[in-house]
Every structure is written in C-alpha cells, then in structure tokens.
Design goal:
This protein has 17 helices and 21 strands. The chain has 480 residues and is α+β, with helices and mostly antiparallel strands.
Length: 480
C-alpha cells in the first residue's frame, strides 16, 4: 500500500512539472498539497474493511427527525399535545417505533375521533407505548417481550421481519439519531390487553384457541381478556403445558371452562407483590359463587398449587398482567392443598404413613361422587408437634396404626362442603370416623373434641373443587 501511494505521488509530481509555466510556483504547490491530502484520505478509506466501517451518528435528535419530516406531522402534533417533544429532544437513549400520517389517520378513524378529541392524558400512554427507554437496533431485537415507557410490555416477533404485538410491522429500521434510533412502523401500536398477548404470542396459541373457540362456555374469554377495565392476572400455560396435560376432549365444556378460570386471579398481581399463601381464582366450587383458592409459593421462584411454576413473569398489559406457567393448573382437590402447603407436611406424612392407608385416594374423589365433597379440619405441623409432646411420644411413627387412622378420619366430614359461614354455635358434627365434635362460634370458630380439648380454626375456608379445608391449631382426638 505504501509503495502504491509513493508511485502515485511521484507520478503526480512529474505531471505537475510538465504543466505550462504560466502557473506560478506557489499556486502549483497549493494545488499539489490539496491533491495529496485528498489522495491520503481516499487511500485510508480504501484500505479499511467495509464491514468494520462506523459511520458517524446523526446530529439530529429523534424529535428533530419527526419535526423535519412531513410524513410524521401527525406524530409531531400528538407529541406536542402530550408535551413529549422535549423528552425525545433531550439527552437519553431511546428506541421509537414511529407511525407515519397514514398510520395515525387509520388509528383515529378506527376510534371514531380526531386528534383534537384526545387529551394529553389520552395521548401520553399511547405515545409512550411506542418508546423503549434504551437504544435497540433491529439486529438487537429478538422474539420475546420488552418493557416500554408506558409501563406495559411489547411483544416482539422477529421470525419474519419485525412484528410488534401481532399486527404492527417495522417498515424501515435503524434510522439512527443522536439520542437513539427510530424504526418506522405501519400502524399505531394500540395499548395491549391480555388478549393482545394471548393472540400474538405463538407460545400461547393453544391457550388462545381453547379459550376463544370452544363452544358452550358461559364465559366470553375474549371479552374478559380484552376488556379495558378487566384488571386481572392471567396464569398462562404455554403450548408444552397443554401437550403435557394430554387429551382434554373427554371433558365437558363446563369442566374446561372451570380449568381456564382457575388460571385467572382478580387484580393485577406483579411477581414482586406475590407472597407465600392463599389467593383466589375465578373458578368456583360447583354451582356456587365460592371461588376456588390457589396456593402461591414464593420460596424459590413462584409456584402455584405445588404443580405449576412461573417461567416468564410480569408481561404487563393495560388491563392486567400475564405470568407464563409451565403446567396447566388443574382444579385442586383438598389433597392438592395439603401437599402444596408445607404447613401440612406432617399431616401428609401421617396420611401416607401406612401402605394400606387410602386417605389420599379417598380425598381425591371428584365432587359429586361419594364420599365427596369433604370438609377437612387440617392440623398444622406445630399442632402435630404439640400432640407428640402431649402424648409423650418421640415421633409420628410411635403412634399406633389404629389410633392414627381413627384420628385422621376424625378430622374429615364426608359428603358436605361446610364453610365457616355455614357453622352454627353448638352445632354437633359427625365425622368420617363416626365420632362427633361440637362447634362454637361465639368468639371465632372453635371445636371441642370428644376429649373436651378446645381447638381453634386459624384459617377458614380454603376452598378446593371437591371440598373445603379449615386449618386448625391442634390435633382433634376422638374417644378411643
């Protein structure tokens, strides 16, 4: 390269020496210097690798670009009305998905309004729904969710170009500006609902199909998930979760509907606000208005009913939030809660201590099939610990089999779903063991067993699909 450059320089020198002598020496030198500088610059660029060339960023801000392009006059007017021009003209790093005038016209026509009809408060979330708070080029985008400045999520699909929320396409990418990057889009990105993401995310296609195409539901899932004021938390099983569940064709529409409702919790519950304990879903017990409970465990990640773990948390919509889960959350039995809630680990150990015990199979009986439904008074681990101390026993294994079986049966009422509001003062209850105990409701709910020991109900009405659990702080003892 250096030799080539020197040859060019010598040739030029000879060329200038043969020019007419009418040019003054000083002028020749000036021209010669200019040519050499030009050649030097050209040589440097020709020696560089084209793939490594970095072009200088535009000196214009994103706001400058919008203001200087007539095709974005509607966007500019909207930004001005929402008082966001200064934001996109200032320091920072932004990604803006910019709809042109035609896109804005179509959006406003669809709403049946003009820009003048929309207030700053109306426009601000819509416009911020087009802005990511960092610079993301098209090459850096990948299929999945990103958060935008409207505090909601955007679903990006890069399998064929770049598509946002299922129906907005990037038409021109990577318009580089001094404070970020612009991607031109063919539509205004409407604020997403839960339905938007269920329909757009190919990983949720089975859920969307089952929820919106199954005939015979009383619930219009499309309307519920798409409702502007729904305010719901959707626990969304992915396609693999439905595959693992297996064939559901044998279920009635009513049964499938209840399973889907068991994935919906009232209110917007972000993962940061979830704590270990019981919540309620929109599924109900039988034909009643009693909502089924769901056990939430946040000790390591987030798990529901001990069977379904959150795989993607906090997909935020305008009307709620989605947490993707790895398993379909089937309707819980009383056994589901006993095994999911670590508070009952000793109870579970007792129920399964002997190989010939049939407690688990019995308590898993479907509602409507005898002896279901059940009312279970479930002692905590501490309650069992106190019992061992009371009986001066070393551990659970020291309790005779017949005594343990009778004691466990004494905590179960068969063929009745008795909630705390159904209990009355002085009520005598007959148990699965055939013994009785007495309920007192004058100060909370207490139970007096056949040995005159008084036990407190500390957590009432944990509702399962085949019965209800009342948590008690002492083991009930029948007369033996």
């Amino acid at each position: 390269m250096l030799k080539s450059f020197l040859r060019v320089r010598v040739s030029l020198y000879k060329l200038f020496n043969h020019q007419t002598t009418n040019f003054k020496t000083m002028k020749i030198k000036k021209i010669f210097k200019t040519v050499l500088i030009t050649l030097f610059v050209v040589t440097i660029f020709s020696c560089s690798d084209d793939d490594d060339t970095t072009f200088p960023q535009s000196s214009e801000t994103i706001a400058d670009f919008v203001a200087g392009n007539p095709n974005y006059s509607s966007l500019l007017a909207a930004l001005q009305k929402a008082e966001l021009v200064e934001t996109l003209d200032g320091n920072g790093s932004f990604t803006v998905f910019a709809p042109n005038n035609a896109a804005f016209d179509a959006f406003l026509t669809g709403l049946g309004v003009t820009l003048d009809d929309l207030s700053k408060e109306d426009l601000t979330p819509i416009l911020l729904n087009h802005v990511i708070g960092s610079e993301v080029t098209s090459a850096q985008l990948s299929t999945g969710y990103v958060s935008n400045l409207a505090d909601v999520s955007t679903y990006v699909n890069t399998s064929n170009g770049v598509v946002l929320n299922g129906d907005v396409t990037v038409t021109t990418a990577d318009i580089d500006q001094s404070n970020g990057v612009i991607h031109a889009v063919d539509k205004v990105i409407a604020l997403p609902t839960l339905l938007t993401f269920a329909a757009a995310d190919s990983d949720l296609s089975t859920l969307a199909t089952v929820a919106t195409t199954t005939q015979g539901f009383d619930t219009d899932f499309a309307a519920v998930l798409g409702g502007a004021d729904s305010d719901l938390t959707l626990l969304a099983p992915d396609n693999d979760a439905f595959v693992a569940l297996g064939d559901i064709s044998g279920l009635t529409a009513a049964q499938v509907e209840q399973v889907l409702l068991n994935h919906v919790i009232a209110g917007t519950n972000l993962s940061s606000g979830l704590t270990t304990g019981y919540g309620s879903t929109l599924a109900t017990y039988g034909d009643t208005s009693n909502n089924l409970n769901i056990y939430i465990n946040t000790d390591g990640g987030v798990t529901f009913n001990g069977m379904s773990e959150v795989t993607t948390a906090d997909i935020v919509a305008s009307n709620g939030v989605i947490h993707k889960v790895g398993s379909v959350i089937t309707l819980p039995t009383v056994v589901t809660f006993a095994t999911a809630d670590a508070t009952f680990s000793t109870l579970v150990a007792a129920l399964t201590r002997e190989t010939d015990f049939t407690f688990v199979a019995t308590l898993n009986t479907d509602n409507g099939t005898a002896p279901a439904p059940f009312t279970v008074f479930a002692p905590t681990n501490d309650a069992f610990g106190d019992l061992l101390t009371e009986l001066s026993l070393a551990d659970l294994a020291a309790i005779p089999t017949a005594t343990l079986s009778a004691t466990l049966s004494y905590h179960v009422v068969a063929e009745a779903n008795v909630r705390s509001t159904d209990l009355t003062d002085g009520q005598v209850v007959t148990t699965l063991e055939t013994g009785t105990f007495t309920v007192n409701t004058t100060s909370g709910v207490t139970i007096t067993d056949e040995n005159s020991r008084v036990t407190n109900v500390v957590v009432p009405d944990v509702q399962a699909a085949n019965g209800v659990i009342h948590v008690v702080d002492q083991v009930l003892l029948p007369m033996m």
